[in-house]
Amino acid sequence: MTxxxxxxxTSCAEDTGIIAEHLGNQHHNRPxxxxxxxxxxxxxxxxxxxxxxxxxxxxxxxxxxxxxxxLIRTRLGLAPLQQDAMFxxxxxxxxxxxxxxxxx
Length: 104
What we know:
The protein is mainly alpha-helical.
């Protein structure tokens, strides 16, 4: 990848070429910031990076977050994640802790 160091966000594993960018309201709802972010994203994509935008609503939704994880695994050439009962139980517990939601 040939993007300059200053253009590569810290939420990037450069050796994978994948960048997950959180789109938060405090920074992305101003027109000037929106334009800057769009230009940076275009530059990074032009340098060969895959840029995946992620919102708070997506991280709060298990289905949406699983879809993002599946996309990342696909881009890395990995097989879909097989979630057994133990994984599902730990995932549910972690999500409850992170998002302060009751477990079933």
